[in-house]
Amino acid sequence: MVDLSYVIAGSEATGGAGLQADLRTFQQFGTYGVGTVTCIVSFDPKASWGHRFVPVDSQVIADQIEAATSAYSLDVVKIGMLGTPATIDVVADALARQPWRHIVVDPVLICKGQEPGAALDTDTALRRQILPLATVTTPNLFEARTLSGMDTIATIDDLIEAARRIADLGPSYVLVKGGVEFPGDDAVDVLFDGTDTEVLRAPKVGQARVAGAGCTLAAAITAGLAKGSSVRDAVKLAKEFTTAGIVNRIGGNAPFDTVWQGAGSAQ
Ligand code: PXL
Fold it and tell me: Is the predicted pLDDT of residue 113 greater than 90, yes or no?
């Protein structure tokens, strides 16, 4: 029987990030991907590729989750972009209806194009209602600063401190991703399991952000967990998979490249 990977996330209309990147990743790991759409993000090429954000109606989200979880015995889920407090309410309710072996939370905090006040309410709801449910959460540097309340994260010790503070919010494992912004030649991530920390490194591939990297990494962790890996092994393989996708990134007419999930195979 093939393993199943489930994702509740937004659609990103160029296909580089969000649910599209998640499902491609699930496939590449040899798992059967099932997805629920929470919102639709359509970048606007007429306005510097800024975000146009439309939430999906709460009842429609609930219906999708009902369909997916009734059709299959899903027990590993990735939570990507949720976008509004109403969506967070409906997703938190749905998650509480059944047991989960693993919940992977990519704490996508902001969507440009939202009112700052609305974004703050969404951050608070995510922190209170979703983050405590996570087996693993994967904040990037911006999300780690926001969730930890730290102004700067510029050293390995800062990454570790941020991971500890975020673990206090409830997740069992915290993977803080340094990414291209973190000083130095390596893409450095810190994995904290509540007791121990492990520093993961790979040489940076250029200095520009590549769209879909965070989504791909969290989806790859999810697929690894669906296949029975430990969190530690799933995280390490996911980093290798994402790095391969960044090395082989895809460029188009937008001013950013995107991860090519087809470059990495984890079957
Ligand atoms: O990469 C974060 C992200 C996640 N999900 C959706 C997005 C984006 C960034 O654009 O649009 C739907």
Answer: no
Task: Kindly tell me if the per-residue pLDDT of 127 is higher than 80.
Answer: yes
CA distances from 170 to 40, 129, 130, 253 (A): 28, 10, 9, 41
CB 245 within 8 A of CB 264: yes
Q: How far apart are CA 187 and CA 218, in angstroms?
A: 16
- Give mean pLDDT, residues 7-24: 98
Name which of 117-121, 196-200, 220-224, 232-236 the model is least confident about.
Answer: 117-121
Are residues 59 and 11 in contact, defined by beta-carbon separation less than 8 angstroms?
Answer: no
Q: Which of 176, 226, 183 is nearest to 204 (CA)?
A: 183
For residue 1, report the distance from its CA to the centre of ligand 1, in Å.
31
Q: Which token pair is 42?
A: 């359509």
> Which pTM value belongs to this model?
0.97
Ligand 1-lining residues (CB < 6 angstroms) = 9-10, 12, 17-18, 41, 80-81, 108, 214-215
Nearest atom in ligand 1 to 40's CA: 12
